[in-house]
Amino acid sequence: MDTKWWRAHLAPSVPSSMPNHPSKTSGSRSESVYSGLRRAIIEQALMPGDKLTEDVIGERFGVSRTIVRAALAKLNAEGLVDLQPNKGATIAQPSLSEAHDVFEARMCLERQVLARLAERITDRDLAMLEQHVALEAKAGAHDGPAAIRLAGEFHILLAELSGNGVLARYVDEVVSRCSLILALYSRPHSSDCSINEHQQIVDALRARDADRATKAMDHHLQAVTERALLSSNSDKHRDIRSILDRYAG
Amino acid sequence: MDTKWWRAHLAPSVPSSMPNHPSKTSGSRSESVYSGLRRAIIEQALMPGDKLTEDVIGERFGVSRTIVRAALAKLNAEGLVDLQPNKGATIAQPSLSEAHDVFEARMCLERQVLARLAERITDRDLAMLEQHVALEAKAGAHDGPAAIRLAGEFHILLAELSGNGVLARYVDEVVSRCSLILALYSRPHSSDCSINEHQQIVDALRARDADRATKAMDHHLQAVTERALLSSNSDKHRDIRSILDRYAG
DNA sequence: GCATCCATCATTGTATACAATAGGCTCGAT
DNA sequence: ATCGAGCCTATTGTATACAATGATGGATGC
């Protein structure tokens, strides 16, 4: 709890590589905290229910609470973080009902994405998708947290290639929230099956077969949804610090 | 430019009536600024391109820049406000391409809403819708800025009645952004036609006719979309202060 | 032993100070 | 008059101080 910690941490400049979304809260600092936390959540390093104390996060990322606060607000807007007045932030714990809503919205959005893609997809796009699936396969082998993230990013990539930025943003959001839902309700699944299903979607798109692609997607999401089971972690006081260090880069 | 203005303004407590979304940035203060600005934007009192200076807003709402900043960040996340680093916030000016994306997403989402509603709508829900349409008709008569807002709120109400919170949030967002788009690209339309079309949608829902409802909605949105024309307001330096006062309550 | 109350502490909410940046403006030179 | 260099001011970015709120734990009474 020593004060004046940052002076030491502050690198002279942090030129964050690539602003993921067009929307930015402000400078690159809160963005960096935001994306760090986001990644930690999506890779399930931070688990639903974990307390996100502003001071702790600020300490680990080398910024003041002001910045952390902005990042948390953004994560809250996305539904990844619960923010209770005067009690602070925790990783969101979607109820089963919310989970259902998210999946339904996701289905609806991704159908539209595929409909667009089946019409306008280019060979270059297909190449990118193939490459991504390959990446998934490789990461999936040694089942790192990266595999979880990559599985989601496949869908985000699809949405981005659709060319509709609004759709892309929403898909990004629902996919992220699905990570949370799986963390809460699913057994530690091997995502091998996912990869296979992703490949099928790409194949259908290559054939410009909107119908088959949609079917494949429906089946895929159905499979993911049905992994919703029991489970509930409740370590009252997990120490986040060491985890945050891994994501503060 | 006198400092220490707020002491005078600060009411002892501001028990904001109803938190629109479950997501809250923090306390009720930023919420109040947020919703005030939002309403001003949606009612087209604030126009695309208008500069939103933190100090000015803070002064009018009787809060510090900290609070204003949180509100602006949230509006930015919703796509209603552009936030450029070191240059501040302006009301968003969606490009035609963005406008198209928004409308496409909106169509997709609202179809899903209608599909759900056609199955599960109750008589009580229908009554609420009827009541709302009546309200629209009344407000539309003397064409206040409220009419614009109410037209949008019809769609938001539909989404909320659908029972899917995620869907509702997204519909809320795209509908709001449509206000901006209309402000930019449409002639000052009388929304009488809208009301009529809204009534048709309600009628279709009463008959539990998903198909007819969807058709009506498609037609309705089509009509709205096609009002996209020319126009561009560019008062370089509009004075926002008097407008803000009307929304600071 | 168990519940209750109060003191203490940890944490959040908010205003504000200070630094950095951007844009405008004056002034002089061409 | 037009252009550019350099100050000047308005505004944003960020850390921090202080207040308020909620949790925690220990002493007290039953």
From TrEMBL, chains A, B:
Species name: Microvirga puerhi
Renumbered residue ranges of the record's region Disordered: 12-31
Pfam families for the chain: FCD, GntR
Protein name: GntR family transcriptional regulator
Domain of life (superkingdom): Bacteria
Coiled-coil intervals, chain numbering: none
Keyword Transferase applies: no
SMART domains in alphabetical order: FCD (SM00895), HTH_GNTR (SM00345)
Transmembrane segments: none
All residue ranges annotated as the HTH gntR-type domain in the record: 27-94
PANTHER family with a match to the protein in the record: HTH-TYPE TRANSCRIPTIONAL REPRESSOR NANR, TRANSCRIPTIONAL REGULATOR, GNTR FAMILY
Gene3D superfamilies reported for this sequence: GntR ligand-binding domain-like, Winged helix-like DNA-binding domain superfamily/Winged helix DNA-binding domain
Residue ranges, compositional bias (Polar residues): 14-31
Keyword field: DNA-binding, Transcription, Transcription regulation
InterPro entries for the chain: GntR_C, TF_FadR/GntR_C, Tscrpt_reg_HTH_GntR, WH-like_DNA-bd_sf, WH_DNA-bd_sf
Classification via CDD domains: WHTH_GntR (cd07377)
